[in-house]
Amino acid sequence: MLTNQTFAFIGAGAMAEAIIGGLIRKELVQPDQISVTNHSDKDKLLRLEKEYGIRSFQLKKTEVINASVIILAMKPKHAEDAIHSIRHKVSNEQIVVSVMAGISTMYMENLFAIHPPVIRAMPNTSAKVGASATAICLGSYASSTDGRIAEALFRSIGTVTELAEEKMDAVTGIAGSGPAYLYYMVEAMEHAGRQAGLREDEAKELIIQTFFGAALRLQHTEKTSKELYKEIMSPAGTTEAAFDVLEQHQVQEHFTAAIMRAIERSKELGNTTATPFK
Ligand SMILES: NC(=O)C1=CN([C@@H]2O[C@H](COP(=O)(O)OP(=O)(O)OC[C@H]3O[C@@H](n4cnc5c(N)ncnc54)[C@H](O)[C@@H]3O)[C@@H](O)[C@H]2O)C=CC1
Ligand SMILES: O=C(O)[C@@H]1CCC=N1
């Protein structure tokens, strides 16, 4: 499904690179199927060309963007400017895939001069190692074939769930931002390891396997998350001692509130009013 497609990334930041890196690593897409541009950082484009063997291009010099799939990977606040700058370079035969947090398919559709199929996606940076949890939803002009192409793109870098658009903000707060919460917890484990005398490399190996093991266990059991952590707690043991501190500081309540704030922020990012193309 991907062998006949070509991909142009508009935006060459962390997320674009994670997707490009993942695609190339899986070898389902060849480097010559991928091109990339950004706003102004030529050095970054040169590095991407060198590291991944892909091609970079300048929007100004290009009439129609030369790709069957165009991936919008700029910050949400740049969505309007970016779409304005490409709207005459896109045809209805090209699929526009956006990974921007909060930005709705209708908002993007209104900014184009024509009606290209638009697909909103929310991947995460684990794409780089082929393990993103991505959700996608289809805009009003996207056909099921367009959806299958987008699904194949993201399936090559992890799992894909197709959802109703109103669920995309929840996905963004949980899975888009999700790896950051886990890395923050890893950082806490690293701090504790250091304080307790573990070398950095020793701690790292233990922490990574602990995360891997917990994820695998979760995947292969019917037990709830509560049952799983209760299973680890011996009466008056070490885990219970740790949970006493977590509960004393209401860590879970605060964590839930933090994730709800991310979901709310995704909605806020989408609450921009753009000037529709006339
Ligand atoms: N970083 C992450 O973990 C995730 C990010 N996203 C979404 O991906 C998008 C990009 O995020 P990051 O890669 O983190 O941002 P970033 O700031 O690292 O990269 C943004 C890129 O867009 C380019 N850009 C801005 N305006 C442009 C224009 N008019 N034309 C061409 N290029 C333009 C910039 O030059 C830069 O290369 C955001 O909308 C974000 O919501 C989605 C899921 C996860
Ligand atoms: O922080 C952000 O806005 C982006 C969206 C999801 C992950 N990173």
TrEMBL record:
Q: Which residues cross the membrane?
A: none
Per UniProt, the enzyme's principal EC class comes to: oxidoreductase
One GO biological process term: L-proline biosynthetic process
Domain Pyrroline-5-carboxylate reductase catalytic N-terminal, by residue range, is: 7-102
Per the annotation, which location comes first and is thus the protein's main one?
cytoplasm
What is a GO molecular function of this protein? pyrroline-5-carboxylate reductase activity
Q: Which chemical reaction does it catalyze? A: L-proline + NAD(+) = (S)-1-pyrroline-5-carboxylate + NADH + 2 H(+); L-proline + NADP(+) = (S)-1-pyrroline-5-carboxylate + NADPH + 2 H(+)
What Gene3D superfamilies does this protein map onto? NAD(P)-binding Rossmann-like Domain (3.40.50.720), ProC C-terminal domain-like (1.10.3730.10)
Residues bound to NADP(+) are 10-15, 73-76
Superkingdom of origin: Bacteria
Q: Where in the cell is it found?
A: Cytoplasm
All copies of domain Pyrroline-5-carboxylate reductase dimerisation, residue ranges: 165-269
Pathway(s) served:
Amino-acid biosynthesis; L-proline biosynthesis; L-proline from L-glutamate 5-semialdehyde: step 1/1
The answer, when asked if NADP is one of the entry's keywords, is yes
The UniProt keyword set, sorted, is: Amino-acid biosynthesis, Cytoplasm, NADP, Oxidoreductase, Proline biosynthesis
Q: Mention any one GO cellular component term assigned to this protein in its UniProt record.
A: cytoplasm
As for what it does, the entry says: Catalyzes the reduction of 1-pyrroline-5-carboxylate (PCA) to L-proline.
Which PANTHER family does the entry link to?
A: PYRROLINE-5-CARBOXYLATE REDUCTASE (PTHR11645), PYRROLINE-5-CARBOXYLATE REDUCTASE 1 (PTHR11645:SF49)
Q: According to its UniProt record, which protein family does this protein belong to?
A: Belongs to the pyrroline-5-carboxylate reductase family.
The protein depicted here goes by the name Pyrroline-5-carboxylate reductase
Q: Which organism is it from?
A: Sinobaca qinghaiensis
Q: Which gene encodes it?
A: proC
